[in-house]
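Friendly challenge for the regulars: who can give me the structure tokens for this chain first? No prize, just bragging rights.
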Amino acid sequence: MFDEPDSENTFWLINYTGNVVSSTGFISDKMHKNEQALRWDGETKSPSVTITSSANEGNGQEYTATNRWILGPTPQLSVAWAPSRNSRWQYRQPFQEDYPNATVKFADSGVLGSTFTYIGAYEEHTHHADGQQFQLIVANDAAPADPPSEIFKSLTMASKHMPGKSPDKVLAFVLPDPSWRGGYASPSRDELWVHEDARLSGPRNLWIHEYVHTRQSFELGKEMMWFREASAAYFASNLSVEQGRTSQSDVLQLLTAKKFDESALSKPNTWASHEVPYYQGAYTLWALDARIRNATNGERSLFDVFDRMNSHEGTIDYGDFKRIVTNIAGQSIDPWLNQYVTTSALPELQEDVGSIAGDVESNKVDDSNSRKTSGGNGNFSIPDANRLPVMIDDSSLTLFMWGGLGLVGLVFALVVAQYISGQIKRIRKF
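First reply, four minutes later:
Bragging rights claimed.
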């Protein structure tokens, strides 16, 4: 229950995605910047709202709905409240944030992530290493090409060598057909999914590729759009070499297997296909890494460039990229970059180029693993403090979820009950 508010403007639902199909106790309203919002009517003691989220969202490859399971988008929703008329607004995202003493329940079984919601039977594997947790959800009927223990080992070793702070938790899903035979990752939420056919061996290593995406916190300008996929492909192949899961010759053979004619990395309108960053881009980054290593006697690498890009404030344009590379290399590499990033020319790359991870401590991983099976036959920005809206830290939320298997819709119903001061938020699903 909520403490009685001093004003009818004390409680709002804002910044939501999905479609609001019904609500009780809320009034459709707009904030001062004209954003659509729902305002509590000031009278209803248990206001509620029902939001639908479609698995057809995105480009058609991110989410999947079948008769046995669904992987759909978790809606974004911010709850805003103020304990009193003159107090500061406070904000929470009940679908994206963890709360103490919170419980989540599904009608049958499922997993609520910040980006993905899975409904259906599944098998769960967990892995702990170096203060980090990996949670692997194997969807109904999915059979990963590699055992979870090997997936965890590869991801843990990759995490150790990636720049920056490792995320505390990573949520990963393994999906069978009819999911797209690739993968998808949410950088801001440390969540990803990979098709069951993805293998750790070979120069692609889709598991590391998607994991690298979760470690990319930079924003890229148009001339740098190629770098996101190129760096993921580069690190996936590089770290796979370090782990002994492929060879540099196999990497070079893969990256040079396709030619893209007049495609220039910094000019997306010249790309022969969407694959240009994955092949030409990754190949160019291998060559760039070799130049940086040669210029610094092996003391710095593309690893450091990636790290500097992650800490860069604001959007990274091509000029920023060149300055970062120059700073890391200790000398200007601008002419080289201009030749191989802004034109269709390809650099030369030898099979004995270095690798970013450097010294790897062997394949030993100090960790712990657990596994459990879930039954069941069916189964998101927060405004600043000067803007309207808030809720009380001791508020109680009851979250109900229904998933219609065989349908492309997920229904999220949020019920806010009036609450006794001192309680903690509670999220419940079924």
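The mean pLDDT is 80. The chain has eight helices and 21 strands. Your move, everyone else.
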